[in-house]
Amino acid sequence: MSHTTTTPPAPTRGAVLRARLRSLGDALRRYAAVNPVALAFAVAILSASAATGSLWGTDASAWGAGPLSTFVSGRWWTLVTALVVPDSTVDALASILVAVTLLAWAERRLGSRRTAALLGGLGVLGLLTGIGLHAAAWGLTDLRPVIATEVPVLDPTITSAAVVMAASAMASTLWRRRVRLVGFALLALFALYAGDADSWYRLIAATLGLLTGAFLARGSARGSWHRSSTRETRTLLALLTTVVGLGPLVALVSGGGRGPLSLVVDAYTQFDEALIEQCDQLSSSACDEQFALLMTRGVGPALLAVTPLVLLLIAAWGLRQGRRAALVLAVAVLVASAVLPVVSLLDGRLVIDPWVDGSGAEYVLWALASIVIPLALAAALLVARERFRIRATARAARTVAVVVGAAFVVCGAAFFVVEEVNRREFDRDLGVLDLLGLTVRRFIPPVFLHPPGSSPFPHHGPALFVYQWVGVLFWAIVCAALLWLFRKVQRPDAGDDRLYRDLLRRGSDTLGFLGTWEGNRYWYAEDRTAAVSYRLVGDVALAVGDPLAAPGERPAALAGFTDYCLEQGWTPAFYSIHAETMDDLRARGWREVPVGVETVMDLPGLEFAGKAWQKVRQPLTRAERDGFTSIWTRWPDLTVSQASQVVAIDEEWVADRALPEMGFTLGSLEELRDPEVRLQLAVGPDGRIEAVTSWMPSWEHGRITGWTLDFMRRRADGQNGMMEFLIAKAALQLQSEGATVLSLSGAPLADDPGEEPGADASPLRAVLRWLAEVLEPAYGFASLFRFKGKFRPRYRPLSLAYRDPLELPAIGAAVGRAYLPDASRRELVALARTAWEGRK
User: Fold this and answer.
1) Which regions of 618-665 does DSSP assign to beta strands (E)?
2) Which of 183-192, 493-502, 565-574, 584-593 is least confident?
């Protein structure tokens, strides 16, 4: 039956713009209704910065707080103005951004009234505490040089940090630890290395906020502490490694840093300007060394100098994923950075000028920053080494060794040849041994090196260029090789599915047989009584369907599989699970996104009688009248002619669309070959196969009690109603065999008909609904779902379960790759074109 549709006129640009403005206005009104305090604070910061001129770069220090500004000068109002007036344009923008994001997050957990009270109370208390400690520090002679000459503090993020830390006590365990670890790591990083008063006041206020949050959450589970898991331990150590790696960079960016640990930056300083000025009147080996550093400074040497810090950041990334190679790299860099400065100090290269005669505080702080912290972190990594058991493959390790070795040889040979040809560009004559020694030294970061004052250096030309960049090129290759090595990890063997099939026969749900498909791996409980089938896509482990476990054992199976994934450095996710499994996961703090609906027919007492079954009974009656029969068989039992016809029907279906064939939970010809899968053929009076379906078994107490529809294909030029005919005949036949359940399988991206509109308003759910509309012209998921509705099924929602919202992008990408693992560029372009044309 054909019908005509009228295409509505395209909206004008003005109408589109007005619609977008209305949508934006609605979003802003909703935001203001939920976060009034955060929005008001952002407006206050903007107004104050504009009124004082700090937004345009005008000095607003008169409004700042500090021991002299507040106590000595008697400007008590600075305890308030310092919390709303930023000191620069950048500070204003950063403070407003923090207010509308992090402070808004805190307000949604604390409530608006409590947020407003803490915003003022914790801000003033944090300033008073910081000012008091600041003044007390001046009384310590040894620390006086560390404390900067007072620059009045102007920083609205001080009170925001306090409120966010207080709100962390009201967050879930995952987000509470994440906010606290990341927050205090960043706050401590700037306080210990940059050392400005703003950073210290911010850290003090955040600590007060943390204590306040613990008080507010007293007596509740939210305020309690729990033992860290393997994943959290990895995250913590990776975070500490990142702080140690970024600390010197923060000190360098902040002008050398004034924090107690900023002395470590001395190891990265390229030259001493004061000493170079004195060298105009004297000559010494120290002058030769400083002139060498001055002549050879630039982007290349600067990059070489920070190579250890880059290596630590790379190691931190690998530690977060549990890589053993990252552990070795981090320990090696930390130990080297701790031991070699001591050698330099003993050799007299590293000289720390005492701030006060006879004082030893500077040596204590230098030793703490350069020796104690790296060694302590290295020791912590070694103690926790069992948490980093994910090893690279032997082949990958050999490849990296060959690449690094070859890079060293090639770069070293190139350096030697260029410098040999351009010997005249050096400040002195070089022998072969001198040039060989210089070649080796150019690959060692300066922080690991003790260069003698007589070190030769080129003045200009190709020799200077190679001198500056050959080490950088080598270490860039090393960094790229390490990142590649982290990806090439040993994967557990997929194993065979014999035990999984045995557990299936003990008892399984309607979608359990999907776990037997090619490409799946298997996790088994220690007692081998529970199993999870999963698809490993990158670092995401997608569990397929519900676990095979007795109802009482299911929570333990879910926990065991999750722990196994975290040990391997994978992101676990459960795809196409039913409500019972979702309930168990929800009790463990997991979240869900609906991803489809399974349609199930209950066979006991089923009769295709009455008006409600007319849309099924008519095709069934017509097909039988025309001489069509339903034949049950299995792939090994097909004749050559039958198998050829089934293959031809499938190839015709795929070719007709010119689109990538989907897999994962959607079966293809490969899945039909399983001996336990039953095939149902619609055969015409001439013996030609018109349509084919496949049915997967499900068991209960060792007996087959249900069948699940998977494969559905019919000839494009065949008679209509063949699928209704086959499914109706299957229901009647399987009912007579004693089956109780007939599942028409899941409909991807379909909405539960029993779900109220707008019940799930999450952004990801909105994206999935949009994706369903886009893919409908290509794959017809919604049409298939409506077709199955003819059989008056019972609807069972299917969900995707995940632990962390931040993992959703990776999980979504893994699901896409699982469904389209072998799609070519041409097929993806065809898919996009079909989807676009269907949206017109």
Assistant:
1) 629-633
2) 493-502
Of the candidates 161, 241, 239, the residue with the CA atom closest to the CA atom of residue 205: 161
Answer left, alpha or beta for residue 578, where phi above 0 means left and psi between -120 and 50 means alpha.
beta
Q: Which alpha helices (DSSP H) does 384-536 contain, by range?
A: 394-421, 432-441, 461-487, 498-506
Task: State the residue for tokens 């500490």.
Answer: 240
The amino acid sitting at 347 is D
Identify how many contiguous H helices and E strands the chain contains and give both numbers.
31, 11
Q: Around 266, how many Cα atoms within 13 Å sit in the side-chain half-sphere?
A: 22
Residues 706-723: tens digit of each pLDDT: 999 988 888 878 788 899
22 Cβ neighbours under 8 A, 6+ residues apart: none
Task: Name 437's bridge partners.
Answer: none
CB atoms near residue 107 (< 10 Å): 27
- Is the CB of residue 400 less than 8 Å from the CB of residue 437? no
Q: pLDDT tens-digit profile of 286-313?
A: 565 555 555 445 677 777 778 888 899 9
Higher pLDDT, 758 or 417: 417
d(CA 355, CA 414): 46
pLDDT (0 to 100) of residue 791: 87
Least-confidence region, from 189-198, 390-399, 513-522, 626-635:
189-198
* Token pair belonging to 66: 């500090």
| Residues 123, 539: Cα–Cα separation, whole Å | 43
Tell me what pLDDT residue 840 has.
Answer: 47
Mean pLDDT throughout 85-108?
91
Separation between Cα atoms, residue 448 and residue 343, nearest integer Å: 10
* Inter-helix orientation angle 112-137/157-167, to 10°: 120
Q: How far is CA 772 from CA 18, 781, 835, in A?
A: 27, 7, 10
Helix (H, G, I), strand (E, B) or coil at 397: helix
Q: How many C-beta atoms lie closer than 10 Å to residue 394's C-beta?
A: 9
Helix (H), strand (E), coil (C) string for 552-579:
HHHHHHHHHHHHHHHHHCCEEEEEEECH
Q: How far apart are the first and last CA of the chain?
A: 22
3-state helix, strand, coil in the chain (%, to 5): 60, 10, 30
Structure tokens at 612: 């409600």
Residue 652 near residue 716, CB atoms below 8 Å: yes
C-alpha–C-alpha distance, residues 788 and 777, integer Å: 18
How far is the C-alpha of 203 from the C-alpha of 208, rounded, in Å?
9
Structure tokens at 498: 């014999």
Q: Are residues 708 and 740 in contact, defined by beta-carbon separation less than 8 angstroms?
A: no
Q: Which of 714, 589, 720 shows the shortest CA–CA distance to 650?
A: 714
Residue 130 near residue 99, CB atoms below 8 Å: no
Amino acid at 644: S
Q: Token digits for 514?
A: 């999907």
Torsion of CA 499, 501, 507, 510, to 10 degrees: 140
How far lies 385's CA from each of 132, 230, 245, 528, in Å? 42, 11, 20, 29
Q: Say how far apart CA 209 and CA 165 lie, in whole Å.
A: 5
Strongest mean pLDDT among 135-144, 172-181, 691-700: 691-700
Under DSSP, the state recorded for 801 is E
740 burial type by CB count under 10 A (0-12 exposed, 13-18 middle, 19+ buried)? middle
C-alpha to C-alpha distance for 707 and 603, rounded to whole angstroms: 11
Rounded CA Rg of the chain: 35
> Quick one: DSSP state of residue 507?
B
Cβ neighbours for 167, distance < 8 A, ≥ 6 positions apart:
105, 106, 107, 109, 110, 115, 213
Lookup: tokens for 158: 């001080």
In the structure encoding, which two tokens stand for residue 743, read together?
């599942």
Which residue in this structure is represented by tokens 């002395």?
Answer: 263
Residue with tokens 């994962």: 664
- Whole-angstrom distance, CA of residue 388 vs CA of residue 318: 9
